[in-house]
# Entry
Amino acid sequence: MLGVKGASSTKTTGVSSGKSTSSSSSSNKVKSEYADVFRKNPADPLKEILGPGKQSHYKEWNKIINEIESQGVEIVYKDGVMAYSPSSGKPGQLVIDENSSIGALIHEYTHYLDDKKQGFPGMSYHFQTKNRVKMELNAYMREVEFAEKIGRRDIANMLFENYIQERSLLTNHLK
# Structure
């Protein structure tokens, strides 16, 4: 599947945050919150801030789902998964956790748009490192822009770090 968010895992673990209660400085508090969100849900940090996208951004969520479904994308809801899987010559499949953030949906929607722009070339195209890296950059940057738009530069930075990790994984394993 293309674009499985979170280079190492698609499942969330519910790891205890270990949040510091010290108030020595606001800088430490921001760093602590940043670390807490990342530990709780590294693949979908916006979920920890906004909650499920279908609740926090109901209209936008439904608009995207309805649009891609009407264009032939098969929608599959599966806990802990966020991915767009391309097909050759036709729209692919969006597999997404119903509780994903709007940012995660935007990310996978961007993969669909990139796939459509290329004419639905299939997996052989998407497994070429150069193509895959460009598509991941595009998807993560849409998510980063969303985080910045809502004033969450800390989340934007985490998402960019996710891209760097995924890029490293892709360039080391897809040669």
In short: Confidence is low (pLDDT under 50) at residues 6-40. The CA atoms of residues 64 and 70 lie 10 Å apart. The radius of gyration is 16 Å. The helical segments are 26-40, 45-50, 53-56, 58-70, 102-117, 123-126, 129-149, 153-173.
